Each structure stands twice: as structure tokens, then as C-alpha cells.
């Protein structure tokens, strides 16, 4: 049996991951979900949404001074986005590793962007870059009742019992 503190540790960390309109249109939803799922992270929220431009501007508010901000927000609101929350030990930092560098020309092969994208403006996926942004982004995209806490039987095998 997992001890309480181990279950707690596995559930502590959550990150916000979004498949952007290019990833959805290219039929990469299952491929992307699969990479997080096979790693051993746990899906605790998911929905498909069409964000407004105003909502996209909120999501990317940290980048509002950047020259690409307007085009980026137009793009995020140009089609359906798959919004998700993934949970697990180290999921924020390791989620970014699974995703790869922002510019797919620099993403390593084996990463989502490295394997599946070519240019920075169409890099198919978003992931929170730290604990504070994860908290803010989860709160922006989801209500607390949309976040589902549950125990997966696989956790015993993913985290062990020592
Ligand atoms: N972006 C862009 N041009 C740039 C840098 C970023 O179009 O020169 C886009 C790209 O889609 C990126 C998003 O803006 O994913 C957010 O930028 P950030 O630096 O936060 O990268 P990320 O956290 O997504 O890796
Ligand atoms: Mg970012």
C-alpha cells in the first residue's frame, strides 16, 4: 500500500498544459496526451475550448511587451485548444522537458516540439514555466470543481513503496 505521505507527494504538484490550435488541427491530441500519460503523470482536468482574444491576452499577459504578442494571441484564439491539468512529482519542470525548447529548431529530438513542430510560431503546445505560473494558469483555465482528485492504481507502480 502507498503510505499517505507518498500519495500526498505524488499529488502535490500540478501543471497547466494546452494543445494549441495547430496541434489540434494537425490531429496531435492523442499523441501529446499519450506522452504525458506514458511517462506516469496523471490527468486531473481536460476540456476543449475556443478562447477569445481577450482570454488569450490574459493567458499570455507576461509577454505583452513582446513584438509577437498580438499575433500570438490572435493565433491562440484562432481555433480550439485542448486545456489540461497534469499532476505528478516534478511535473512542472519535467513537463517542460517533455515539451522541449520554445523554438522547435532548437528542441531536442524526442521532445514533443522536437519531433512534431518546425517553427516557433507554430510549436503546438504550451506548458507552465514554474510553480507560480502553474497556479495562475490552472486558476485562469479551470474552476476548482473541474479538477478531479483521484488515486490511480498505477501510482503504486510508478512511485514504489519504499
Ligand atoms: N513565440 C513566438 N516568437 C518568439 C517567441 C515565442 O511566436 O520569438 C510564441 C511561441 O508560440 C511560444 C509562445 O510565444 O510558445 C510563448 O513564449 P514563451 O517564451 O513563454 O515560450 P514557451 O513557454 O511556450 O516555451
Ligand atoms: Mg511560456
From TrEMBL:
**Principal localisation:** plastid
Q: Which UniProt keywords apply?
A: ATP-binding, Kinase, Magnesium, Metal-binding, Nucleotide metabolism, Nucleotide-binding, Transferase
State the active site.
126
Q: Per UniProt, where does ATP bind?
A: 20, 68, 96, 102, 113, 123
What cofactors are annotated for this protein?
Mg(2+)
Name any Gene Ontology BP term: CTP biosynthetic process
Statement: the UniProt record of this protein carries the keyword Nucleus: no
Listed under catalytic activity are: a 2'-deoxyribonucleoside 5'-diphosphate + ATP = a 2'-deoxyribonucleoside 5'-triphosphate + ADP; a ribonucleoside 5'-diphosphate + ATP = a ribonucleoside 5'-triphosphate + ADP
Enzyme Commission number(s) from the entry: 2.7.4.6
One GO cellular component this record assigns the protein to is:
chloroplast thylakoid lumen
UniProt-annotated location(s): Plastid, Chloroplast thylakoid lumen
Q: Which residues form the Nucleoside diphosphate kinase-like domain?
A: 12-149
Query: Which GO molecular function terms does the record list?
Result: ATP binding; metal ion binding; nucleoside diphosphate kinase activity
Function, as annotated, reads:
Major role in the synthesis of nucleoside triphosphates other than ATP. The ATP gamma phosphate is transferred to the NDP beta phosphate via a ping-pong mechanism, using a phosphorylated active-site intermediate. Shows the highest specificity towards GDP.
Q: Please describe the quaternary structure of this protein.
A: Homohexamer.
**Family of this protein:** Belongs to the NDK family.
Q: What is this protein called?
A: Nucleoside diphosphate kinase
Give the organism, scientific name.
Ensete ventricosum
Covered residues, full protein: 76 to 237 of 237
Amino acid at each position: 500500500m502507498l503510505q499517505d505521505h507518498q500519495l500526498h507527494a505524488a499529488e502535490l504538484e500540478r501543471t497547466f498544459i494546452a494543445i494549441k490550435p495547430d496541434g489540434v488541427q494537425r490531429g496531435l491530441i492523442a499523441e501529446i496526451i499519450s506522452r504525458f500519460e506514458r511517462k506516469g503523470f496523471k490527468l486531473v482536468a481536460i476540456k476543449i475550448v475556443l478562447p477569445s482574444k481577450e482570454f488569450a491576452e490574459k493567458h499570455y499577459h507576461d509577454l505583452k511587451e513582446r513584438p509577437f504578442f498580438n499575433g500570438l494571441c490572435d493565433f491562440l484564439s484562432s481555433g480550439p485548444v485542448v486545456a489540461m491539468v497534469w499532476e505528478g512529482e516534478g511535473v512542472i519542470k519535467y513537463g517542460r522537458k517533455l515539451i522541449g525548447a520554445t523554438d522547435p529548431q532548437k528542441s531536442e529530438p524526442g521532445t514533443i516540439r522536437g519531433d512534431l513542430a518546425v517553427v516557433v510560431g507554430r510549436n503546438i503546445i504550451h506548458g507552465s514555466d514554474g510553480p507560480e505560473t502553474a497556479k495562475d494558469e490552472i486558476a485562469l483555465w479551470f474552476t476548482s470543481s473541474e479538477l478531479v482528485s483521484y488515486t490511480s492504481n498505477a501510482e503504486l507502480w510508478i512511485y514504489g513503496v519504499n
